Every structure is written in structure tokens, then in C-alpha cells.
Amino acid sequence: MTRDPKSFFERAVRPPRKSERVPITAMVKLRRRGHHNFTVHVYDLSPEGCKMEFLERPELDETVWVKFEGLELLQAKVCWIEELRVGVEFVHPIHAAVFDHIVDRLG
Length: 107
Known about the structure:
Blueprint: H1 5-12, E1 22-32, E2 38-46, E3 49-53, E4 63-67, E5 74-82, E6 85-90, H2 96-106
Antiparallel strand pairs: 1-2, 1-4, 2-3, 3-6, 4-5, 5-6
């Protein structure tokens, strides 16, 4: 079996982020299509997405819904997976004032 190093490299490199992620430690509710809601650990957050730890490995490009306490559900897409840690990108970025409120409360 021959490995194509270029295709591996292309999959391993992530595009640059639109904004820096802020380190937070929080538990949020997560919903996956066809699954019950469950709680997951969030490690960092930006207006465009976050890194979290799943109990069950999702699929790349899977749609999920993230629920921070006191906010509406945020629809997101899984954009990278490393073992049980997953990066998601929000379909609609979090408004700056709402983002600051979340960081102040959880950061």
C-alpha cells in the first residue's frame, strides 16, 4: 500500500483562523442529528467556532447544535477531528457583544 504524502499533508493543514480563539473551560449542551442532547467540554472559543471534546466521534462536515447556557442554539459544522477533540465552525458567527459576554462569564 502506497501513501501519498501530499494528500496526507493537505488533510493535516488547517486553513488560517478568522480570529484568535480565547481559552475557556466550559461544559455546553450539544445536539447531533438522531442523538439525544449531551454535555461536552469546550476548550476554546472564537466568534466563528470552538474546540470541544466529544464522547462519540462525529463525522467530518457533520452538522451539530451547540447550546451555551442562556443563549439560543448555535448551528455548527465539524471542520476537523483529532481523536475525540473536534473543531466546529458556527454557521453564523457569534455577535461581538454576545461573544464578550460568554467570555466574561466562562473565561
